[in-house]
Amino acid sequence: MTELPQWRRIRAYGVPERMIEECAAARAKGDWQAACVAGEIDLVPGPERLPEELLAGFAPDLVRWHLPRALGGHTTLATGIEYALAPDGPVGPDTVVLRLTAPASVLGSQRLRLGAVRMSDLGEPGVVRLAPWQWDARRAGELRAAVGGDQRRVPRFGPDGDRLPRAELGLRTDRPGQAERVLLDRGTPEAWDAAGIVVDGDFTDPYFGQAVGRLRRTAAAIDPLRLHLEVRRLAEQFGQPSWALWYDRSRALRIDVDGDAVQATAVEANWWEQSAPIRLLPRLHPALLRSPVDLDLVWNGLLTPFHLHPLVRSALFPTTGAAPVPSPASPGAGSLASPLSSPRGRAASHSSFSRFSRVEAARVRCGGRWHVVESRDGRLVLLAHDDAERRRERAMRAFGGTVTGCFAVEQAWTGNAGRLPRRLHAVRDDLWLRMVHGGSRVVFELLDAGMDPDLRDGRGRGLMHLLRSFDHERLLPRLLAAGADVDALDREGSTPLATGVALGWPLGLIKALVAAGANPGCRAYNYRDLTLLEAVEFQDQMRSEPRPAEALAVIDFLKGHVGSPATES
């Protein structure tokens, strides 16, 4: 349960309220393309025609809700995964399916890509197959059965949707009662056996050596009832009786289906054994088989049903009815209003500051006195200091002087050093989470509302460092016009250009940065004593494969501009 606070934040920001409402409105009109626009999904052209029947129910907001997350302190989507959205079986090599591609970075854009391919053209075996209830609004109600619910109730909750006390879990003989008993014994072979999965061996078998901890954690996180149901569904849909559930780079559980019987066998395959039979099996993703996180959050009191996606709430808690109208905040209330301040399903304002624009204040010790620093619409206001004092402090900072008090807080807000008071830290986090998950549209709304264009995140990165995550053709001129520093350093000492070269930004954006004055001779990303081109030369000595053509074009461009005036070529 240590991940639940993190999941609460994911549920607050990962699928913005406006995205849910606009996707629902587009679906109601039968306009799946508008739904993709609202859901931050790019359509990828290809040789196959997009299957209209699948797209008729495609819900970008719903699939984003259910996709695995990176975790580890991140609210963003798990990266480097291709998902298959397939029709009901049998699915063969020539069946046209939807391919959904996850973002490339946990720190970058959260846009997804959608295209159509034949099943045989997918990048097997790593592609992950999604269940219909995870992406098709017409099938969203099937989530109830997937989590072990029946017509009366879902596990850990009564027929009226109220939470059951822990002492009552597993006492009933219905299907949710069985799921509760499995939950109480989770992580043990006995729980898997009760779910109908025969475990060949023991989760504590010393054969696994140091990997036994990972196996235990995987077994504890997975809901074996959900696994039993899903792997049988997949076996029937895709005609594949054997699946691999990896919990380590070289170790997996082989899941075999024979009718209603399911068996799990621990298998080891060294990393160099790429042709090992287990590596050729289609894969199950552990995050899609875990104990249902939304039920965990509601049962533990971290969320209410009203904070869930409306389609998820309708499947799990159909008796909750309409979302209540939130009570208005008292005038002058200083607490930050997060997206969880209001239930989902109520009409959201089209302003990204609709639940943010209150003034947030913090007391700061400055010159022996307590001063108040306020955040107003994403910009700091130093109430105790006039413009002349601020100019004097900036000059002192430019000459290497030490800033303290209110000015140190301002430096932490717009620079790469210092710490923010807790309340202002929460404001900054809220702003960045809204931008990361809301995309370019939210960024420009916040800037229009007055947000400081020099705002930094916890790593000292500003919008310049994250240009590739947004509409950079519009954002870069906007930031330059506002006076943003094109060579600003983050906490690691990297400029936006160094970040862009390391992360594979397109040549056009690299050219635009250099044309704006970015220094091609800057220090390389993650290298303390090497310039960009020195780092490239160092890396090339260890590369076994040539760089992609786009990367080579960027390098050639930089070579022609080191030591010369920044001009467009």
Label this structure with key terms:
five-stranded mixed β-sheet; Serine Threonine Protein Phosphatase 5, Tetratricopeptide repeat; 569 residues; four-stranded mixed β-sheet; alpha+beta
Structure description:
- The protein has 569 residues and is of the alpha+beta class.
- The chain contains 21 helices and 14 strands.
- It has helices at 4-13, 17-28, 32-38, 52-55, 60-66, 143-146, 175-184, 189-194, 212-221, 224-238, 293-299, 310-316, 387-398, 405-414, 422-438, 440-448, 472-481, 496-502, 507-515, 532-540, 549-559, and strands spanning 41-43, 69-71, 74-77, 82-85, 96-101, 112-118, 128-129, 197-200, 242-248, 251-258, 261-268, 360-366, 369-376, 379-382.
- Helix 18 (496-502) packs antiparallel against helix 19 (507-515).
Lay out the secondary structure.
Layout: H1 4-13, H2 17-28, H3 32-38, E1 41-43, H4 52-55, H5 60-66, E2 69-71, E3 74-77, E4 82-85, E5 96-101, E6 112-118, E7 128-129, H6 143-146, H7 175-184, H8 189-194, E8 197-200, H9 212-221, H10 224-238, E9 242-248, E10 251-258, E11 261-268, H11 293-299, H12 310-316, E12 360-366, E13 369-376, E14 379-382, H13 387-398, H14 405-414, H15 422-438, H16 440-448, H17 472-481, H18 496-502, H19 507-515, H20 532-540, H21 549-559
Parallel strand pairs: 1-6, 4-7, 8-11
Antiparallel strand pairs: 2-3, 4-5, 5-6, 9-10, 10-11, 12-13, 13-14
Roughly how much helix do the residues carry, as a percent range?
A: 25-40%
- The first-to-last residue Cα distance is 54 Å
Q: In what range is the share of β-strand residues?
A: 5-15%
What would the average pLDDT be, to the nearest integer? 89
Order of strands in the sheet with most strands: 1-6-5-4-7
Radius of gyration over alpha carbons? 26 Å
The count of helical stretches stands at 21
Low-confidence stretches: 326-336, 347-355, 565-569
Number of strands: 14
Q: Which structural class should the secondary elements be placed in?
A: alpha+beta
Q: Largest sheet at a glance?
A: 5 strands, mixed
Shape by Cα distribution = globular
